[in-house]
Automatic annotation (TrEMBL), chains A, B:
This is Malate dehydrogenase [NADP], chloroplastic. It comes from Trapa incisa. PANTHER family: MALATE DEHYDROGENASE. Homodimer. Residues 97-244 form the Lactate/malate dehydrogenase N-terminal domain. Its main location: plastid. The lineage of its organism: Eukaryota, Viridiplantae, Streptophyta, Embryophyta, Tracheophyta. Keywords: Chloroplast, Disulfide bond, NADP, Oxidoreductase, Plastid, Transit peptide. NCBIfam families: Malate-DH_plant (TIGR01757), MalateDH-SF1 (TIGR01759), PRK05442.1 (NF003916). It is an enzyme of class 1 (oxidoreductase).
Length: 438, 438
């Protein structure tokens, strides 16, 4: 990470370690490993700050060699030590870098604490959180970092905040892209595709330049399928299959609605697929879904409800929540992101699957190639996934899938200028934004 | 729970189970156990509602025997089944009831999902969440319950929402009392003590009447020490030592500040006590605290910083966060509530302790009896705790402790009318509300 110039803002005193103290600590220090708590910002000239001691006066910090890795931290946040040297931590896995965009927003405010607590990647997986915000949200990012510090999570070994994706995505092994512009008054879906598409084109380029070559990317910011497509097209050096668009909240809501209708607890519902776009053309699949292992259509015999009400119930959930709660569903969205990650890092239970919006190339369902489409997947728990073979289709399902496929192809034509495929031409006949996601 | 009258609001269809479906399910049903997902409201006349299917038209529900336990649920939320009959759940512990007040607020919005995920009470502890809100927040409570449903937590077996503590606290084994009125413009601490004191007097009476006889109560709503005192005085049939005032966020912040100053990771800091009131008179104790097992005063030799800056840094953290983040610290407060619960349900690590605001009767430190005062505690992990014996005092620490003790005695005199000890008389010389907790 090239940091051209280091000047200290007003909030970081240097470490006041003395030689008498170092004797307690030296056994733990090891310069091979960079496991520090540091926070980075680059605004025009690069600056470094930490989230703590905000009452302290400005302190001058020595400019360091911009090429050295240690140049982006100092003082108390630049401790280098070796987890292998401590009894409690020596059996831990290697630290992983998790980048999160929109990190000052409400979804992230739930998600980051879940990631840091160990409930996502396990109790032996130390993590570094790299938080991407905007100039406007930078102070809020500092607040988030302060709260993460006050939470004393043993597994959270590094926090970095910044507004430049080329810095924040450095060596990222996971990129959770939550940040996106919300739709303003009078803005059409085509405008939103263009505005957010530009953000995801830039982030794709940044991932391509600096992230781990096997980074897993989960796009949450809407319109997430086409944003994911733009992102992967701008990151040709990263496998296209590593990019996901989040449809897991839709899957979870579909399971809940099927459980409610059948009068069973939701843990009895399995094999639910969300097909296609994260929009109102999405297809929650009740043909292949099961309840207690039995096809849903045998359990829920009210097929009229399945065909005419079920999909709407899933889709209107977000809008109903906003009406009730006055805010969009940040907490359950964060839970569904956790579910999506866990589905990739733990083996899928025998006979079941999960939904994810992924690149269609090589899919066995006849979905047109070259788009990001939610489909049923299984994982061995290695971060990768494969398509499920044993799904069936009927005319109802095929017709619905064709419609959402057509929409994604139209969205793709809209953003051709962002995927390097010519001039964008937008012909989106209707507004298919999900209620509650404006 | 006496429910005088049942009328259905507009949102709950009855279960549409058919006999053909019941064959799949009957093996799992068992009327001995009441493990359903139901939501309750009592507004003047009792009403029952569920959080789901809010697009459905009004449905009439049969009035049931108000004395039967099943009277507070119906339809799909009234499933009764036996966790012991299922392979996945038969080794689970008995369901516990956790009541949370202020359940529609931001702290709860973080906390409830942590409780439901299993990270607090463990992966084999099914839980029932009983959510207390107000008439005004009732719709938001429904939204929270909907998000909990959409999260598909396997351990979350019951959700009930309501505005009457006598219903919501029924059989509660934990009561997390987060809700309190915030201080309005021009309101003095004495006013706040009175207004919130009335809430906690009522909740104490309700706990006394309907909660488990060994309920553990954690008071978070401010002024939390005196609120906890009022609560326990109104609940004479529950052991006074079961009541806690949350000072864990202060402890966590103190650990973080000591770590930052010493240049160590925060997991090296132990034996930190917060003494006294959750206010600016609180005493973060650096005399007994340790870093890597060594007394802090030997590690941090800048004793002027310890005596003059450390306490302020801990106390100003909340205000600094509001400035940065624009909101109060809901996420890290929720983490500290989780820490406080875990400290009671897991054995305290050898040689360490945790802080909690507890009833002073029988304390070995010479603190005056009859108040709620934060002190160092240890637990065997059974929900109970004992005072730590091996702490030392010096003049600096004793002087500070005397001041916070005097404040709590003054607060106690303020609320004498709420604790059954005469006429309240308020003489609070200064505003000791912590920054960021207005």
């Amino acid at each position: 990470m090239a940091v051209a110039e280091l000047t200290a803002p007003s909030i970081c005193p240097k470490s006041n370690l003395r030689s008498s103290q170092l004797s307690y600590l030296s056994a733990r220090f090891n310069s091979r490993r960079h496991q520090s708590f540091h926070l980075l910002r680059r605004v025009r000239s690069a600056r470094i700050s930490c989230s703590v001691n905000s009452q302290s006066p400005p302190v001058a910090v020595k400019t360091q060699d911009p090429k050295s890795k240690s140049s982006d931290c100092y003082g108390v946040f630049c401790l280098t030590y070796d987890l292998k040297a401590e009894d409690e931590t020596k059996s831990w896995k290697k630290l992983i870098n998790i980048a999160v965009s929109g990190a000052a927003g409400m979804i992230s405010n739930h998600l980051l604490f879940k990631l840091a607590s160990g409930q996502v990647f396990g109790p032996d997986q130390p993590i570094a959180l790299k938080l991407l915000g905007s100039e406007k949200s930078f102070q809020a990012l500092e607040g988030v970092a302060m709260e993460l510090e006050d939470s004393l999570f043993p597994l959270l070994r590094e926090v970095k905040i910044g507004i430049d994706p080329y810095e924040v995505f450095q060596d990222a092994e996971w990129a959770l892209l939550i940040g996106a512009k919300p739709r303003g008054p009078g803005m059409e879906r085509a405008d939103l595709l263009d505005i957010n598409g530009q953000i995801f084109a830039e982030q794709g380029k940044a991932l391509n330049a600096v992230a781990s070559r096997n980074v897993k990317v989960i796009v949450v910011g809407n319109p997430c399928n086409t944003n994911a497509l733009i992102c992967l097209k701008n990151a040709p050096n990263i496998p296209a299959k590593n990019f996901h668009a989040l449809t897991r909240l839709d899957e979870n809501r579909a399971k809940c609605q099927l459980a409610l209708k059948a009068g069973v607890f939701y843990d009895k519902v399995s094999n639910v697929t969300i097909w296609g776009n994260h929009s109102t053309t999405q297809v929650p699949d009740f043909l292949n879904a099961r309840i207690n292992g039995v096809p849903v259509k045998q359990v829920i015999t009210d097929h009229k409800w399945l065909e005419e009400e079920f999909t709407e119930k899933v889709q209107k959930r977000g809008g109903a929540l906003i009406q009730k709660w006055g805010r969009s569903s940040a907490a359950s969205t964060a839970v569904s992101i956790v579910d999506a990650i866990k589905s990739l890092v733990t083996p899928t239970p025998e006979g079941d699957w999960f939904s994810s919006g992924v690149y269609t190339n090589g899919n066995p369902y006849g979905i047109v190639e070259g788009i990001v489409f939610s489909m049923p997947c299984r994982s061995k728990g290695d971060g990768d996934y494969e398509f499920v073979k044993d799904v069936t289709f009927d005319n109802y399902l095929l017709k619905k899938i064709t419609k959402t496929e057509a929409e994604l192809l139209a969205e793709k034509r809209c953003v051709a200028h962002l995927t390097g495929e010519g001039i964008g031409f937008c012909d989106l006949p209707e507004d298919t934004m999900l209620p509650g996601e404006m």
